[in-house]
């Protein structure tokens, strides 16, 4: 695994948990944020290589959370 891939895997996305606690579907979130279901699924599954600040801002707005609620850093999981 390339170093960039290892680094990307150290970031964990907690979208499943946030959706569950808010009783929201991925499709509903995608519509409210203005991104495709596919792109949101890529983020949810930890396969995204980047996220725009505008998308992160909208996710936090819709989910009523902070960026740290959505993402965490776990270097020991490498």
Q: Outline of this structure?
A:
This protein has 78 residues and is mostly helical.
CATH level-3 fold name: 434 Repressor (Amino-terminal Domain)
Strand content: 5-15%
Low-confidence stretches: none
CATH class, please? Mainly Alpha
Helix content: 55-70%
The spatial strand order of the largest sheet comes to 1-2
> Distance between termini?
10 Å
Structural class: mainly alpha
Q: What order do the SSEs take from the amino end to the carboxyl end, as H and E? A: HEHHHHHE
* Corresponding CATH superfamily: lambda repressor-like DNA-binding domains
Task: Please provide the count of β strands.
Answer: 2
User: What is the correct CATH architecture?
Assistant: Orthogonal Bundle
Mean pLDDT: 90
Q: What is the overall shape?
A: globular
Main sheet: strands, sense, barrel: 2 strands, antiparallel
Radius of gyration: 12 Å
In total, how many domains does the architecture comprise? 1
Q: How many distinct helices?
A: 6
Q: What report would you give on this structure?
A:
The chain is mainly alpha-helical and 78 residues long. It has one domain: 434 Repressor (Amino-terminal Domain) (Orthogonal Bundle), CATH 1.10.260. Helix content is 59%, strand content 8%. The chain is built from six helices and two strands; from the N terminus they run H-E-H-H-H-H-H-E. Strands 1-2 form a two-stranded antiparallel ribbon. The chain starts with a helix and ends in a 5-residue tail after the last strand.
């Amino acid at each position: 695994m390339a170093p960039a891939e290892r680094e990307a895997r150290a970031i964990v996305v907690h979208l499943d948990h946030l959706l569950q606690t808010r009783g929201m579907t991925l499709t509903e979130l995608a519509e409210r944020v203005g991104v495709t279901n596919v792109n949101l699924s890529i983020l949810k599954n930890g396969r995204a290589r980047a996220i725009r600040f505008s998308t992160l801002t909208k996710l936090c707005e819709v989910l009523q959370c902070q960026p740290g609620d959505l993402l965490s850093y776990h270097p020991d999981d490498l």
